[in-house]
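thread: overnight batch results

M.L. [08:02]
morning all. the overnight job finished for the chain we discussed friday. pasting input first so we're all looking at the same thing
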Amino acid sequence: MSSENFTVKIERMKQTDIDAVCAIEEKAYGEHHWSKESFFNELSNELARYYSAFDENGTLAGYAGSWQILEEAHITNVAVHPDFRRRHIGEALLYSIIKDCMANGVKYITLEVRVSNTPAINLYEKYGFKSLGTRKGYYQNNNEDALIMWTENIFYDKFKLQFEKNAEHLKGTVNIL
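M.L. [08:03]
and the structure it wrote out:
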C-alpha cells in the first residue's frame, strides 16, 4: 500500500486503546516500555494529551502523547507499529500535537529523542525543533544519550509558515481524518 492512498484517523486515546498501545510500545521500546498502568494514569492526568492513530480498518497504527503545562508542552512519546512505518503516521501524530498546542495557547514544545534515532530527529527538525543539549545516559536499556529538542515560539511567523508548508505537504501524502 502506498502512502499516497493511506488514510489515518487520529483521535484522543481511549482506555480501550491501551492494550494495542502497549503492544506497539513493547515493539518500539523493548523491555523498557511503559506499563498499562502508566497509560491509564496518563489518560486520567488533566495535563496529558494522548492520541491514537488508526488505519482505515480500525487497526491501531501508532500513538503519541504530550503534557501541556502553561505555555510549554513536553512530548512524552511517539511510536508507530513496525508494519505501518514510513507512511507518515508519526508525522501526522506530531502535526496533531502541534495543532492542539496552538489551540491551547502553548508556545514552546520540547522532547527527548535517542541520538541514534535519525529518522525521528529529521522529522522533528523538519517541524522546527532544534537540539539544545543532551541528557547523558538517558535511556535505561543501553545508557544511550538523548538529544533535548525545543521549538521556538510556535506563534512566531517563521514557525507558523514552516508548519503550514509541512501541513500542506503532509495532507498531499496521507489523508488525516
